Structure formats: C-alpha cells, structure tokens
Amino acid sequence: MSIGYLGPKGTFTKLAVDTAFNGENKQSFDTIPECIDAVEQNKIDIGVVPLENAIEGTVQLTVDYLIHQVRLPVAAEIVVPIQQHLLVRPDFNGELSDIEEVHSHSHAIAQCHQYIHQNLTDAGIRFTTSTGKAAEIVGESSAPIAAIGNRLAASEYGLQILKENIHDYSNNHTRFLVLSKKRELVHIKHSSELDKTTVLITLPSDQAGALHQVLSAFAWRKMNLSKIESRPMKTGLGNYFFIIDVNQPYDDVLFPGVKGELEALGCNVTILGTYPVYHMNI
Question: ACT domain: from which residue to which, for each copy (predicted)?
Fold first, then answer.
C-alpha cells in the first residue's frame, strides 16, 4: 500500500502520516493538487492533505481543488497538535537579531505572527510550499537564515531548534484529510473518537431565507453541526456553495430526509464523505 503526503520530509503532513500509519510505502509531493491527482490517477492508494488549522482556518487550496477539480472520497480525518519551532543551522551562534530571513509556509508564518513581530523585526519573510521545504532551504544555505517548522524537520535536515514553541496560541491543531478510493486499505493505528459526515450544499439563487431553511432541516432533526463554511462557486460574484460538517455517521433515515427536504427547496445536495475522526498525540 502506498501513501502520498504534502512533502518534502519534515512537514506536519508527514508527521501526521507517520503517527497514523505504520511502515507503508510513503511518497512525498510538492503540492496539494499533485498529491490529490496521484490518488485520482491510481498512482498511490491513499493521500493525506491538510484541511484546516485552528488558528489560520481552512486550507482553501485543498477545499477548492476537491470541489472544483477532483472529487475523491474522504476515508478519515486526522487531527494533530501543532508545535512551531525556530530552526537554524547547527553552526549558527548568533542572536535573533542576526537572522536575515525567516522561511516557512504562509500558515506557519501566520501562526507565529506575534513572535516574529516582537523578535524578528528586521528579518525578511520568505514563503515556501511547506515547512519541510523551508527547513531544507535553511539546511542547504550558509547564510544566517531560519525556518519555522517542527522537530521532525529539524531532525530530517540536521538543524538545531533555536527557540521552541513560538506559535502565538497554545491550542494549535491541524485537521488532515485521508483520501482514498479504496477505503478498506485505510487502517489507522489509533481508535477513533467520533464519526463525521461532510455535506456539500448549493442554494437556489435569489431565494430569501434559503440558508435558514437549510440549517432548520438539520436543527429539527437534532443533528449537530460542527462547521459550516461558504466558498465561491467561481461562476460569478455572489454565487456560493456551503460545506457542512455533521457530527454523526451517515444513516438511512436522517440524511436521506435532509437531502429530500433540501432538494424540494431547490438545493443541490452531495454527500462528500462519512468517516471516522482520529485525534493524535505527538
């Protein structure tokens, strides 16, 4: 079995994969679309991509690519605590003020905004495709630069942790989607805490109170919604679809009832997946 992830080595996605799975064949991809495409084209059995961070919110590239480009079943969700560290080469002996550049993914930079603002005011910010790529750049450079990343990245690229836990908020977690056409192959080495179903809903145009009616279809059935998010349909200004997470598995009574009720209102309803959620301790 082969598992793809947003790479290179040292990313939080790789950390999630190592924590959730055993020693399967693991392959890194430079971008989220490349990883998703590999699952769609049967080059790998399972793909793991970031979906949402507790501080910075949704990874929009993941959502938009799965909705507009490639529809793949969600087999599971992995939730991982995120700890961001300031990484430098082992021969760096300077002070924080000596660091000329800070490299990392845009989400990691944003998660450490206050620390950077207070301690690295003279450093230039350089965005990379992942935290692992940032660590790789620092490891290959002789300049006084730093990366923001995790302990795995420090280990993989021979860096030292100059400052630990520089993220602005302690309760920092990221959700990762496990995508696969072969759900029977997904064996995560932990017990799941709950099951979730994700629904895609497109509202009828120019109908007053449509969103209220959508939410009411779930509410009177006492179905708990953990998230509702709107994204542009890319068909013109003001056209949106909604992604709703329901904290229960798909059944043959409540969900068909919701679907039928909403379709009668003119909505389009698609079940994107029903899957277990795993909270990891790293």
Answer: 199-276
Tokens 């006492």: give the residue.
222
Beta bridge partners of 101: 124, 145
CATH among 3.40.1440.60, 3.40.50.2000, 3.30.465.10, 3.40.190.10 for 2-81+172-185 = 3.40.190.10
Q: Where are the beta strands (DSSP E) in the chain?
A: 2-6, 25-29, 46-53, 57-58, 74-81, 85-88, 101-104, 124-127, 145-149, 160-163, 173-180, 194-202, 225-232, 240-246, 268-279
**pTM of the predicted model as reported, rounded to 2 decimal places:** 0.82
| pLDDT confidence of residue 203 | 81
Paired tokens of 47:
């793909």
| C-alpha distances in Å from residue 273, one per residue of 31, 64, 71, 145 | 23, 16, 10, 42
Shortest CA distance to 276 belongs to which of 20, 24, 6?
20
Burial class (CB in 10 A: 0-12, 13-18, 19+), 240: middle
Residue ranges per domain, the chain? 2-81+172-185, 85-163, 194-275
